[in-house]
Amino acid sequence: VLQRVRRAALIAAAAGLPAACTAPPPPAAVTTLPPATSTTTIALRRSLLAEGRQWAFRVRSVACLATGSSFATAYGIVTNRHVAAGSTTLQMSTWNGTDFDVAVSGISSGPDLALLNPEGEPAGTQDAPLAATAAAPGQSVYAVGYPEGDALSVIAGHVVGYVSGSTYGVSGQVLEITNPIKPGNSGSALLDSAGRVVGVVFATGTINGLGLAVPLSELRSFLADPGSRLLPDCVD
Amino acid sequence: MSNGYSTGVPPDPVPGPMFAGGGGPPQAAPPPLAGRVCGHCATPTDGYFCPRCGSATTEAAPGPTPPWVPAADPSAPWGRVGGISSPWTPPAGADPWTGRVPPDGHRTRNRILTGLVVAILLAAAVAGGVLFYQQRNTARQWRSRDLAEVATADRLKASLAGDQQTINKLNGQVANLDNQISALATAKEKAQDQNTALSQLLSTAGTVSNDLETCVQDTDSFESELVDDINNGTVDSDPSLSTNATNADNVCNSAEQANQQMQQAIAAAGGS
Fold first, then answer.
1. pLDDT of residue A228
2. Among candidates B124, B185, B192 on the partner chain, residue whose Cβ is nearest the Cβ of A95
3. Cβ–Cβ gap A19/B134 under 8 Å
4. % residues pLDDT > 90 (chain A)
5. Are B200 and A22 a contacting pair at CB < 8 A?
6. How far is CA B115 from CA A77, A86, B49, B122, B127, in A?
7. Which H/E stretch holds residue A84?
8. What's the pLDDT at B97?
9. pLDDT at A9
10. Is the model's pLDDT at A119 over the cut of 50?
11. Cα dihedral angle (B93, B97, B103, B109), rounded to 10 degrees?
12. Which of A5, A203, A204, B162 might form a disulfide with A212, Cβ 3.0–4.6 angstroms?
């Protein structure tokens, strides 16, 4: 009798299970899809420009009556030695015209690099990320700076190769690029497609018209040891 | 014998009750049909048929009390078969089919089992009803919620499309404003560049002006000294005359050179 009672109870419980399983579900939460990433060059340039606004500065050298470019890193603000020449302080401005002054904290005796004290940077400034590996020949690169003292711009090109600096009368290695570099681009960050720094623009070659940049390895060495504070004279 | 009613049907050729199925009542022999007479020749007989003429017999007169009691319940399944009343009644408490009287323990167990079966059937019916109600209710809720969700989704979709348009429009406006800010900032920086250059030129102009003034003074001084030497006839013998002339010449050359550089810078600043 007990077994039959138990069996009947089991049957009744099994009959009740489907009712529990068919309870209405809770309302689903509204989810938002992530924005689609654009891979077009225009979109990439816009993206790099938007990033550059957070760390690219225009440099004015009052002593030398010259303008150049620079960019913020975790080590300080990087520009060219010939941009920082002639004065211990430089006038800086952001893309939207916010002005501030910085002091020169390091001058390289090798590659054309200078390090500026980041004190005085406006709020919201971010650091440009350094690439993990050097740019390879043929790779697309973008110079982000203030050519001819104009607005912040992105100049596209690609890496030609690495040559000895003696070809251009400078020490170390030099990165040759096809980007049409203009006066005022000195000190511009050279970025890869991911927006990471792979070099620092410093000149245009008079031999072949190629843009010249300090490669990443030289930049890293300089940032690890910024060198002296001996200011060179203005460059004509 | 009379059982209180007449069947009106031909009598069963085989005397005695018939039972359906294999489980009929016990085969007890019915008592003899005493007190019957032939309907045709009135011959007394003990059977349904006259032994003389073969006609059916009828009840003649009340006979002696039969040794058995008719069934109290005329609806008992064994009471009548084929229109013939059964001369047998199962004892009280006996199984109506088997006619066996179960022992008391068996009877209790049978009642419990019957009760359980009835209870289970009732429970199953109630559970089925509840299940059906719940299913129907759940389906209704699903349908209702589904309709509400679809309506919400449509509303959100429309709202999202509107918001996206607004975002695109605002993004365009932001980009446009950014460009304007950038252009204004660039113009400001260019003006500051010019201001810096002109300040530098102004400073240089002051220096050039001083140099030129020194040049003029030195030249005047040299001129006066020269005039005096000419008047005194000591031009050839004045040792400082040559030195002063060289100094004045150097100062003026330097001032002139600075002036030319300044003029070039002014021209460049004005043309940029």
1. 76
2. B185
3. yes
4. 61
5. no
6. 94, 111, 50, 10, 18
7. helix A81-84
8. 67
9. 58
10. yes
11. -100
12. A203
Do residues B48 and B55 lie in contact, with contact meaning Cβ atoms separated by under 8 Å?
Answer: no
Asked if the model's pLDDT at residue A202 lies above 80, the reply is yes
User: What's the whole-model pTM score?
Assistant: 0.60
- Confidence category of residue A206, pLDDT binned at 50, 70, 90: confident
ipTM of the complex: 0.75
Of A5, A30, A149, the CB nearest to B156: A30
Report the pLDDT value the prediction gives residue B100, as an integer from 0 to 100: 67
Q: Give the pLDDT of residue A179.
A: 95
Q: Which of A125, A185, A113, A128 is nearest to A156 (CA)?
A: A185
- Among candidate residues A97, A130, A150, the one with its CA nearest the CA of residue A219: A130
Q: Which of B182, B195, B202 to mutate to test the interface with A (most CBs of A within 10 A)?
A: B182
Given a cut of 90, whether residue A180 has pLDDT beyond it is: yes
Quote the CA–CA distance of A160 and A143 in Å, as a whole number: 14
| Distance separating alpha carbons of residues A234 and A135, to the nearest angstrom | 31
The answer to whether A12 contacts B142, with C-beta atoms less than 8 Å apart, is: no
